Amino acid sequence: MVVARGVEKSFGAVKVLHGIDLDVMPGKVVCLIGPSGSGKTTFLRCINMLEKIDRGLLAVNGEHIGYRVGKDGRLCALNEREISRQRREIGMVFQRFNLFQHMTALENIIEGPVGVLKESKADAREHAMDLLRRVGLAHKADSFPSELSGGQQQRVAIARALAMRPKLILFDEPTSALDPELVGEVLDVMRKLAHSGMTMVIVTHEIAFARDIADIVVFMDGGWVIESGPPAEVLGNPRHERTRKFLQSVR
Ligand code: ADP
């Protein structure tokens, strides 16, 4: 579902990704962990084309991100319309929910399907109500974001991402803006989603959650992947001193 080879990214003179290699198989959950500033969010944003990579290869669901292979075998840059189509297949859930404040939960969820996918309002509403039930918020369909807790807003944001029927969902620290007592309800929804077979890439500080949910944990530091593998290896028996030090610092 995701193939990254030698992905490099700089902001001005500062190189923040030094050559990331990563494979995400369909239906798997990959958690990216590591110290602040190690490039986790930047890498996630590259997958979703919110940042453009400088070098390397990045493909989602078998397509180069931002490029296509021309008749002569060379890569040509995609135009805006083609990029929007690619981006549509990738859901993103942000740290700060990013719901439209002037729309109800239901309106937030149907906005993309009606506006972009051209679904009928009736179909989009029906699907949105199913999704609200899945995240345990059917009774809040007509509430505005300001009337919802942070945990509820994040669950609506997850339903909104799912409404676009993505092939992959990226989560950027989805619980780090929440009060501690609201973290569990969001993690529960994500756990259910993982069990339903959704492919997920999650930047998280929740090490216990990563251990529980991830098929693969990727430890990044300083713009490099230091090690990756099943949680029992990377979290339970890390090979690298930097991983050990990081895990000690967050425990
Ligand atoms: P992490 O998610 O691991 O905390 P980030 O990907 O957010 O790391 O950041 C990696 C580095 O890139 C940091 O040094 C950060 O300051 C820098 N950075 C991120 N986004 C930008 C940007 N838009 N412009 C300049 N520097 C940035």
Salient structural properties:
alpha/beta; Rossmann fold; transport; ATP binding; 12 strands; 251 residues; six-stranded mixed sheet; binds adenosine-5'-diphosphate
CATH architecture of the domain at 90-165, please?
A: 3-Layer(aba) Sandwich
Q: Would you identify the regions where 5 or more consecutive residues have pLDDT less than 50?
A: none
CATH C-level label of the domain at 90-165:
Alpha Beta
Question: What's the tally of helices?
Answer: 9
Helix-and-strand structural type = alpha/beta
Small molecules in complex: adenosine-5'-diphosphate
Largest sheet: 6 strands, mixed
Compute the gyration radius: what is it?
A: 18 Å
Mean pLDDT: 94
Q: Helix coverage percent of residues? A: 25-40%
How would you portray this structure in words?
Belongs to the ABC transporter superfamily. Pfam families: ABC_tran. Residues 2-247 form the ABC transporter domain. InterPro entries: AAA+_ATPase, ABC_ATPase_HisP-typ, ABC_transporter-like_ATP-bd, ABC_transporter-like_CS, MetN_ABC_transporter-like, P-loop_NTPase. This protein is α/β, with parallel strands linked by helices. It has a domain at 90-165: Rossmann fold (3-Layer(aba) Sandwich). Helix content is 37%, strand content 26%. It has a six-stranded mixed beta sheet with strand order 8-9-10-3-11-12, with helices on both faces. The chain has a four-stranded antiparallel beta sheet with strand order 2-1-4-5, with helices on one face. Strand 11 and strand 12 (224-229) form a beta hairpin. The chain is globular, with a radius of gyration of 18 Å. The two termini are 32 Å apart. Bound molecules: adenosine-5'-diphosphate. Adenosine-5'-diphosphate (ADP) is lined by residues 11, 16, 34, 36-42.
